[in-house]
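Re: [ENG-882] Designed sequences occasionally contain unexpected residues at chain ends

Forwarding the minimal case from QA. C-alpha cells:
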C-alpha cells in the first residue's frame, strides 16, 4: 500500500515539476510582458524603413504603424538607449534594420484580438540596396491616370491615417447611427489640396451632385503583402 502511495506521489511531483519548468522557460522567453512570445532565435530582417508610434505600452515598448500604413502594426521592443513616446516618428538609418524577434498579442478598444510582429531595431546591419528600392517602390507608389476613371462611391469618407505628404487614407462610411460611424471595406487615398489639412477620424463629405472618381492607384505594404487602393477625387 505504501509503495502505491509513494508511486502516485512521485507521479504527481513529476507533473508539477514539469509544469514549473515549462512556466520558467516561458517566462524566460517573454521578459515579463503579457502577450509577448519571443522566438528561440531572432528571425529575419523585415523590410520596413520607418515607424510611427501610436501607443506606448508595457516596459517602455511601443505599438507603431510601419511604413505609413495604418493597417501594418508592429510591436517595438526598445534598446537600452531608446525611449518611445506617442506620435513619435522613427526613420531607420542606412545601417539599421527591424529584426523580427517574436509576436505580440493584444486586444483593441473594440475588444478585437490582434497578433502583430514583435521587432527590435538593430544597428550595424544593411539590407541590399535592391531590396530597399523594391520596398520603397511598393510602399510609396502613386500612379495617376491621364483621365478620371469611374465613380467608386457617392458616400462620405472617414480619414484613418494622414501620410507625411498630407494625403489621407480613408474608408467609405457605410452609415452613421447615433453619431457612431460604420465604415465599409472600401479604402481610398484622398490627395491633399492647397489649404486642406486632414486629421484622423475627419469626415470628408462628398460635395452634392459629385462622386468619388478614381484618378489613380496607390500601392503600399500591409502585413508584409502589397496592397493597391484607388486614389480618388470628387468630380
Amino acid at each position: 500500500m505504501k509503495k502505491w502511495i509513494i508511486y502516485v506521489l512521485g507521479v504527481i511531483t513529476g507533473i508539477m515539476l514539469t509544469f514549473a519548468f515549462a512556466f520558467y522557460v516561458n517566462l524566460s522567453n517573454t521578459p515579463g510582458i503579457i502577450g509577448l512570445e519571443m522566438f528561440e532565435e531572432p528571425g529575419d530582417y523585415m523590410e520596413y524603413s520607418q515607424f510611427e508610434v501610436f501607443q506606448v505600452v508595457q516596459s517602455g515598448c511601443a505599438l507603431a504603424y510601419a511604413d505609413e500604413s495604418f493597417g501594418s502594426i508592429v510591436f517595438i521592443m526598445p534598446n537600452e538607449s531608446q525611449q518611445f513616446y506617442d506620435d513619435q516618428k522613427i526613420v531607420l538609418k542606412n545601417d539599421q534594420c527591424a529584426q523580427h524577434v517574436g509576436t505580440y498579442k493584444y486586444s483593441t478598444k473594440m475588444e478585437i484580438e490582434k497578433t502583430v510582429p514583435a521587432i527590435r531595431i538593430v544597428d550595424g546591419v544593411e539590407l541590399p540596396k535592391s531590396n530597399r528600392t523594391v520596398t520603397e517602390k511598393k510602399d510609396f507608389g502613386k500612379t495617376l491616370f491621364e483621365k478620371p476613371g469611374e465613380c467608386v462611391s457617392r458616400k462620405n469618407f472617414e480619414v484613418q491615417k494622414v501620410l507625411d505628404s498630407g494625403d489621407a487614407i480613408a474608408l467609405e462610411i457605410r452609415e452613421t447611427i447615433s453619431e457612431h460611424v460604420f465604415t465599409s471595406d472600401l479604402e481610398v487615398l484622398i490627395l491633399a489640396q492647397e489649404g486642406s489639412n486632414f486629421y484622423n477620424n475627419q469626415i470628408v463629405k462628398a460635395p452634392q451632385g459629385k462622386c468619388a472618381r478614381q484618378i489613380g492607384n496607390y500601392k503600399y505594404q500591409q502585413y508584409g503583402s502589397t496592397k493597391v487602393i484607388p486614389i480618388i477625387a470628387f468630380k
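QA comment: On inspection the terminal residues look reasonable. The first strand starts at residue 36 and ends at 38. Proposing we downgrade this to a documentation issue.
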